[in-house]
Amino acid sequence: MQAIAKAKGIRITPRKVRLVIDLIRGKDVSEALVILDSINKSAVVPVKKVVMSAAANATNNHNMNADKLYIAEIYAGDGPTLKRFLPRAKGSASSILKRTSHITCVVKER
Questions:
Q1: How many Å from the N-terminal Cα to the C-terminal Cα in the chain?
Q2: What is the mean pLDDT of the segment spanning 21-26?
Q3: Most buried one in 19, 27, 47, 102, CB count within 10 A?
Q4: Which residues are registered as beta bridge partners of 69?
Q5: pTM for the predicted model, two decimal places
Q6: Range of 68's domain?
Q7: Total number of domains constituting the chain
Q8: For residue 81, what is the domain's CATH number?
Q9: 11-27 mean pLDDT
Q10: Among the listed residues 56, 63, 93, 98, the one whose alpha carbon sits nearest the alpha carbon of residue 80
Q11: Contact status, residue 11 vs residue 103, Cβ threshold 8 Å
Q12: Which of 33-51 are b and which e, b meaning 16 or more Cβ less than 10 Å from the residue's Cβ?
């Protein structure tokens, strides 16, 4: 039995989100939330929301015990990239890629 939560189109690059996600993979949900509270990164807020949502889905929709939940899988994939341009010298332009992430969290019961 597992519960899933997804956050799509988060305006943080997947590379920065993965730095936070790698710290909590495989941990208990309560322990993961404590770890997320002590990290000073911008990706912590959406990751914490996804973990809390997956835990809520497990307890409310699948009748799992909240104390036995752990993060079985958590990963961040690429979302759509916003392409912007920055004017440069002599009439040229440089491209700016504003990347987005899709965060997926799967919670299971021990």
A1: 10
A2: 94
A3: 47
A4: 109
A5: 0.90
A6: 2-109
A7: 1
A8: 3.90.470.10
A9: 95
A10: 98
A11: no
A12: eeebeeeeeebbebbbebb
Torsion-angle region of residue 63: left (phi > 0), alpha (psi -120 to 50) or beta?
left
Question: What was the pLDDT predicted at 61?
Answer: 94
Cα–Cα distances in angstroms (integers) from residue 78 to residues 11, 16, 47, 74, in the given order: 11, 12, 15, 14
Instruction: State how far the Cα of 39 lies from the Cα of 57, in Å rounded to an integer.
Output: 25
SS (H, E, C) 34-80: HHHHCCCCCCHHHHHHHHHHHHHHHHHHCCCCHHHEEEEEEEEEECC
pLDDT, tens digit (0-9, with 9 covering 90-100), for 43-102 = 999 999 999 999 999 999 999 999 999 999 999 999 999 999 999 999 999 999 999 999
Record the tokens describing residue 56, joined without a space. 């809520």
